[in-house]
């Protein structure tokens, strides 16, 4: 039982570290990387919580979160890329 | 007896997984620039995932939860590298130069390759 | 420019009935696994969404790319075991590097020729390289793969090309 708490705390600390990197990150890609780490750690955390409280339904949430996280990261990357292409085109116009 | 062995084995796996995750998080803060930080995140994404999910699967035994855990693990292992590749490739295309020395963020333009 | 090329190549070739059926079975299997409620209405909805997903995948040209998929399946477990061994050894290396106070990293770029010929084989190779800590695929185009390595030792291992060979073996002789 206690083992789950230890793992959950380790994952939580990692999430805090990822958040620090997301706030510090010099480039936008550092931030996206940190958010990606945060997302996968959320999936792990949900799975551990499912066993900590003995509620296997949480595994469904973990899967749903994994799906949403991946699509979200790809969407953010698409947005960032489009914006950088557009701004470089505007710079070329000037 | 068997129960105890399985418990101890899964605890070992969980503890190892937790430390892998933690080391990856520390590496994300310590490493000097973007392309090296990806390696730290892939440490938490692969080995941390595998170990923690294996530990949980041992605890669950032969139930539906094991199958679900395996499916989630497989899904994470299949999509994780794809997202990482998309991220690294986007950074490469946007002109962040992968340095071949161990420079910091400030002087990445120095060593084009 | 590149997008039009890939669309054109995805229009070539014929879809295989076996892979369509395989995808449909996998989809319905996961629906049954996850829903847990076996009432006519829910199973009907599941059947509908599985059929819709299969049709959408067919429209996307999904099956035209996956000619060798069925024949690759028996070889996958062996490949995964080998990959797991690689992941464990490289995890230990990277963990040691991160924990040592002096951070002994020597980032290196390596460009390799991909031995696998099909798109699926190339994706498997690229993802396996990214999956093992210490090496990340950052570009994959025209039969060349650009890999960023954390240390020069990792780069040397990669240049010996055992990952490349294994992925090509997985693909086998089938075209």
Write up this protein.
The complex is a heterotrimer of chains A (94), B (113) and C (175). With 94 residues, chain A is mostly helical. Chain A has helices at 2-24, 28-52, 58-93. In chain A, helix 1 packs antiparallel against helix 2 and helix 2 packs antiparallel against helix 3 (58-93). The radius of gyration of chain A is 17 Å and the shape is elongated. The termini of chain A are far apart. With 113 residues, chain B is mostly helical. In chain B, helix 1 packs antiparallel against helix 2 and helix 2 (34-60) runs antiparallel to helix 3 (64-93). The longest helix of chain B is centred in the last third of the chain and has 30 residues, at 64-93. The radius of gyration of chain B is 18 Å and the shape is elongated. Residues 106-113 of chain B have low confidence and may be disordered. With 175 residues, chain C is mainly α. Chain C has two domains: 2-60, no CATH class; 72-170, no CATH class. In chain C, 62% of the residues lie in helices and 11% in strands. Chain C has eight helices and three strands. In chain C, a hairpin with a 2-residue loop joins strand 2 and strand 3 (144-149). Chain C starts with a helix and ends with a helix. Chains in contact: A-B, B-C. Chains A and B meet through helix 1, helix 2 and helix 3 of A and helix 1, helix 2 and helix 3 of B.
Brief sketch in words of this structure:
Chain A has 94 residues and is mainly alpha-helical. In chain A, 89% of the residues lie in helices and 0% in strands. Chain B is elongated and about 60 Å long.
């Amino acid at each position: 039982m206690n083992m789950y708490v230890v793992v959950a705390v380790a994952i939580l600390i990692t999430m805090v570290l990822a958040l620090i990197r997301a706030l510090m990150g010099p480039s936008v890609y550092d931030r996206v990387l940190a958010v990606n780490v945060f997302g996968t750690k959320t999936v792990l955390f949900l799975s551990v919580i499912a066993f900590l409280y003995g509620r296997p339904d949480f595994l469904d949430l973990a899967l749903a979160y994994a799906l949403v996280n991946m699509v979200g990261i790809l969407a953010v990357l698409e947005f960032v890329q489009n914006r950088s292409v557009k701004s470089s085109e505007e710079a070329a116009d000037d | 007896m068997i129960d105890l062995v399985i418990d101890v084995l899964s605890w070992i796996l969980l503890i190892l997984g937790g430390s892998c995750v933690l080391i990856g998080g520390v590496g994300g803060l310590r490493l000097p620039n973007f392309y090296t930080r990806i390696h730290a995140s892939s440490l938490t994404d692969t080995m941390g995932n595998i170990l923690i999910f294996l530990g949980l699967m041992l605890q669950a035994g032969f139930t539906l939860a094991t199958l679900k855990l395996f499916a989630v693990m497989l899904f994470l292992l299949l999509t994780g590298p794809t997202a990482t590749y998309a991220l690294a490739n986007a950074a490469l295309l946007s002109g962040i130069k992968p340095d071949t020395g161990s420079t910091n963020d400030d002087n990445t333009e120095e060593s084009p390759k | 420019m590149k997008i039009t090329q890939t669309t054109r190549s995805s229009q070539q070739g014929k879809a295989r009935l076996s892979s369509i059926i395989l995808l449909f079975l996998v989809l319905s299997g996961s629906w049954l696994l996850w829903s847990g409620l076996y009432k006519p209405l829910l199973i009907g909805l599941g059947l509908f969404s599985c059929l819709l997903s299969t049709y959408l995948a067919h429209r996307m040209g999904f099956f035209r790319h996956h000619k060798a998929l069925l024949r690759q399946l028996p070889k996958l477990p062996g490949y995964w075991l080998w990959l797991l061994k690689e992941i464990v050894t490289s995890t230990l290396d990277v963990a040691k590097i991160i924990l040592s106070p002096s951070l002994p990293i020597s980032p290196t770029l390596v460009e390799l020729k991909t031995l696998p010929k099909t798109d699926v084989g190339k994706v498997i190779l690229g993802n396996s390289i990214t999956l093992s800590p210490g090496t990340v695929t950052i570009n994959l185009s025209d039969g060349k793969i650009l890999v960023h390595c954390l240390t020069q030792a990792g780069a040397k291992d990669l240049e010996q090309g055992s990952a490349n060979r294994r992925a090509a073996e997985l693909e086998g002789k089938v075209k």
